[in-house]
Design goal:
With 895 residues, the protein is mainly beta. The protein has four helices and 81 strands. The strands form twelve sheets. Strands 1-2-5-24-28-32-36-39-42-45-50-54-58-61 form a 14-stranded parallel beta sheet, with helices on one face. Strands 3-6-25-29-33-37-40-43-46-51-55-59-62-64 form a 14-stranded parallel beta sheet, with no helix packed on it. A 13-stranded parallel beta sheet has the order 4-22-26-30-34-38-41-44-49-52-56-60-63. The chain is globular, with a radius of gyration of 32 Å. The N and C termini lie far apart (113 Å).
Length: 895
């Protein structure tokens, strides 16, 4: 009305109302309903039809409002954008009502195509394009038409082919297939296909367009790859109409905009097939440069579905919250990007995501742009079904500070449960995480990494690392079944494989790891790569298949000041080691006051320099380690039921070890919790055996003839160093001492380091006698070094043979004879180890068309008593070649 003064209810105005005994007016409230109308006022009696219109109405009010969404299914045409002017807005589901917001499009109009396959015209749907990678039938994702078909009994790692051979040395993209495995001739649009594959390192699963098909040579080439391939690497091809041959499979023709689908159960019911259209459902976007942030937005109680990317995409926002929501069939659940601070994701359920459940990702090196977030009490299960990077997690953080990840239940994902790269002053606590790393290896349940910046001097890097990458804590987490999928011996992929419980990688420093319980791992409850001043204390590590705790140096990265103390480590023994350590001193890491229970007898430590490989606890103590530690039964309350609390008479208590009670780990009852109690969903899992072998298996086969290797394949069961495009180690059929194959070592100019290429065969022996041999063929200019070491780095040398560029052979610097070029020569070495080692060995050489020559009592280092590895190198600094065949390692007792 004209002449009437209007004003916003400022803080002073509200205070005046309170002083006057009056109640301030409630915030504006708008209702939304599937039966509403956007021309109505948005009252409970006359609700609006869209949340977008309700947001606009709240903006017109000029004050923080509340949008109540009534029960029903809403198919949004576009994401809802919330800006600084929307600060203070709450969007919530009506109490007790199920609100589903979908970014998808329903496909209802079907007609027959071929057999059981139906087709539908997508042109009538409001889709931005036909590039969606998911189709949902009755709420479950369905497989894109593929070869081989999806295997429901092995949903994560089944339904694959295996690379038949190494097509060319060093390739990251070319796969060979066997006759009859594929029929590319029937593919009318191979350019639309996608290859999904695992490489030889398998840090991630690669999705790449199919670049080319060479049917004559049975080769597929992907458009890109990350790491080198090897024979046996798994892969499949999808996105081909001609491969639509199983229930559940689908394909979309981008030209005709036609969808083809084989329904799993007859003609689909109405609204049962959905394809994602939107990238996001909510976008919170402020302007940090202008100092304008989205603040105090609250999204609660909603079921969010069917979008391709970040369901809730947050940037330049502060004090916002996502609570009690159910997110499924989406790309990423919640994304907190640059310039976000003090936001909260709590009480949500997330499943069937393509990537992370929650991503917290910053870009600033001092972590000032992302800070103080809380991820609490969420259930994140069966996640990461899409094209994941090698840092995928239920919760994943990068370049952030003071973030807290607490009381989450996370399980069944392709890589980490919780991962953090480069962050400071963060807390990861009271989470229950298990059955992860289902498709990758060299991984853990909780992982962190901090890569130093080599643009700066090492002293400055260390100081920056302390300031910006330290003071993080991991405590009171319940972690088990670490998984891992990757190439085992002979290159065959296996599960579980190469995984830990907690893994601090690449110079993490200043971390404190305490009061965690970890069981069922492959390589142990804890692993550290380099770094400074980390503390591992009062944890319970149980049942590592191969090892329990590992401390590892890393080239270029400093390592010192670590402590591993007052932990309980309990395992079966057998072939499993207690610790794996390398170059460990009490300055780099001090072990003390641990309670150790090895059910199979005295514990074994792997990696002690020049130490015995079995029952070497006394040698470990002589190094000044594990002072005050005890070998005893910890007396758990009920280990069979995974109750690892301590009985009152536990000897661990006398060491100052506290009983760890994690019955409160994981989700808890809260008004913010989406569902309570929150039962764990049923997930079909791969069988996993975490029991250690009874005895240590031979680390190397007795004989390698290379006849079962593929052409171009590198050495198996060994560490191989080669520089792509300069040097290589690969099986060839150019020549052989017997059979058709041999191992070709090709050197080149400018190798860094100069000893490339090399082969290191891990081979631990502390007693008995080893008979080792090989056939060698040197070409002009080749240089060869073959040596036995008692430690990989700081070693005493056992037998050492060297061939110089003129073909002269020396044995531990004693010249013996000159080798003929381009001829096969046989070498056999016999050397005693352990108590019978006397600093000498025997050598037999068989030149072509000549009687064997025997050299007795050849001298090696008198201190050489045990064997850690056998190393073969090519120290030439120019183009040269030599060949190996019939490489032999045979254990015998010396008579």
């Amino acid at each position: 009305m004209e002449g009437i003064l209007t004003m916003k209810p400022t803080l002073g105005f509200l205070s005046a109302l309170l002083l006057a005994g009056l109640t301030p007016l409630p915030a504006a409230e708008f209702f939304v309903s599937p039966s509403g109308n956007d021309t109505d006022p948005g009252t409970e009696a006359k609700p609006l039809a869209t949340v977008e219109r309700a947001r606009d109405a709240a903006r017109q009010q000029g004050e923080a409002g509340r949008i109540v969404v009534r029960g029903g299914v809403y198919y949004w045409k576009q994401a809802l954008t919330l800006e600084p002017q929307d600060s203070g807005l709450t969007i919530e589901a009506a109490k007790g009502e199920e609100v589903v917001i979908s970014g998808g499009r329903v496909v209802n109009e079907w007609r027959p195509w071929r057999g059981e396959v139906l087709q539908s015209d997508l042109g009538r749907l409001d889709l931005p394009d036909g590039k969606f990678q998911q189709l949902y039938f009755e709420g479950r994702r369905q497989p894109l038409a593929r070869v081989p078909n999806f295997d429901p009994e092995h949903p994560r790692i089944g339904g694959v082919l295996f690379n038949e051979r190494l097509v060319e040395p060093g390739t990251k993209t070319k796969f060979g297939y066997r006759a009859g495995e594929l029929d590319p001739a029937k593919w009318t649009h191979p350019e639309r296909a996608t290859m999904v594959f695992h490489d030889s390192l398998n840090y991630e699963q690669t999705w790449a367009p199919l670049k080319s098909v060479d049917a004559a040579n049975r080769v597929l080439e992907a458009a890109r790859g990350v790491y080198v391939l090897a024979p046996g690497c798994p892969y499949y091809v999808c996105g081909l109409l001609e491969e639509l041959d199983a229930p559940g499979e689908w394909y979309v023709d981008p030209d005709s905009k036609t969808l083809y689908f084989w329904p799993p159960s007859g003609v689909p019911k109405r609204d049962s097939v959905i394809v994602p259209a939107l990238s996001s459902l909510f976008v919170l976007q402020g302007d940090a440069k202008a100092g304008k942030f989205v603040e105090n937005i609250r999204i609660t109680g909603l079921a969010l579905r069917d979008c391709r990317g970040r369901t809730i995409d947050v940037k330049a926002a502060r004090h916002c919250a996502v609570t009690a929501c159910d997110l499924r069939n989406v790309g990423t659940g919640v994304y907190l990007g640059d310039d976000t601070h003090a936001c909260r994701v709590a009480g949500c359920d997330m499943t069937q995501t393509l990537g992370d459940g929650v991503s917290i990702l910053g870009t600033s090196t001092d972590h000032s742009r992302v800070s103080d977030h809380v991820v609490d009490n969420n259930y994140i299960g069966d996640f990461g079904w899409g094209h994941i990077h090698n840092r995928c997690g239920g919760v994943y953080m990068h370049r952030c500070s003071r973030c807290r990840v607490t009381h989450n239940h996370i399980h069944d994902g392709p890589r980490y449960a919780i991962g953090m790269d480069v962050g400071n002053d963060c807390e990861i606590a009271w989470n229950h995480c298990h059955h992860v790393n289902l498709t990758t290896c060299d991984t853990s349940i909780i992982e962190a990494a901090t890569a130093l910046d080599w643009r700066f001097p090492i002293e400055e890097q260390v100081e920056r690392n302390r300031r910006f990458n330290g003071n993080n804590v991991v405590h009171h987490n319940l972690l088990h079944d670490s998984g891992g999928y990757g190439p085992g011996r002979g290159g065959k992929f296996e599960f579980p494989h190469y995984s830990w419980g907690i893994y601090l990688d690449l110079a993490c420093s200043g971390w404190r790891i305490h009061d965690n319980i970890v069981w069922n791992t492959v390589l142990g409850g804890f692993m550290l790569n380099a770094g400074l001043d980390n503390t591992v204390e009062n944890n319970v590590f149980v049942g590592g298949k191969q090892n329990q705790v590992q401390f590892n140096p890393w080239p270029k990265y400093p390592m010192s000041g670590h402590r591993c103390e007052r932990n309980i480590i309990s395992y079966e023994g057998g072939a499993a080691s207690l610790y794996t350590v390398r170059q460990i001193t009490t300055d780099t890491c001090r072990f003390s006051s641990n309670l150790i229970h090895c059910a199979g007898g005295p514990p074994r430590i792997a990696g002690i320099p020049r130490g015995a490989t079995q029952k070497n606890w006394d040698e470990w103590l002589a190094m000044g380690q594990d002072r005050g530690s005890v070998l005893a039964d910890p007396k758990f309350v009920n280990a069979a039921a995974r109750d690892y609390r301590l009985q009152p008479n536990s000897p661990a208590l006398q060491l100052g070890i506290r009983s760890v009670d994690l019955r409160g780990a994981g989700n808890y009852a809260s008004p913010e919790r989406r569902t309570w109690p929150r039962p764990e969903m049923e997930v079909l899992r791969e069988p996993a055996d975490y029991q250690p072998a009874l005895t240590i298996e031979p680390q190397q086969p007795a004989l390698r003839t290379y006849e079962d290797y593929a052409l171009g394949e590198s050495e198996r069961g060994a560490a191989v160093g080669a520089e792509a495009g300069v040097s290589s180690v690969a099986v060839t059929d150019e020549t052989s001492a017997s059979g058709k194959h041999s191992l070709k070592i090709s050197d080149g100019a400018g190798q860094k380091p100069s000893y490339f290429p090399y082969i290191t065969y891990p081979l631990e022996m502390a007693e008995g006698c080893l008979c080792a041999g090989f056939d060698l063929r040197v070409e002009p200019g080749a240089q060869v070094v073959y040596e036995w070491r008692d430690d990989p780095y700081k070693y005493n040398l056992g037998p050492r043979l060297a061939v110089d560029a003129q073909g002269w052979l020396t044995a531990n610097n004693k010249r013996l004879l000159r080798l003929p070029y381009s001829k096969w020569v046989r070498f056999d070495i016999v050397c005693a180890l352990g108590p019978k080692a006397i600093g000498t060995y025997e050598l037999t050489i068989r030149l072509p068309d000549a009687a064997p020559q025997h050299f007795a009592n050849l001298a090696c280092a008198p201190e050489f008593k045990i064997l850690n590895c056998v190393v073969i190198m090519a120290p030439a600094n120019g183009p040269s070649v030599y060949y190996l065949d019939n490489v032999e390692f045979k254990r015998e007792k010396k008579t």
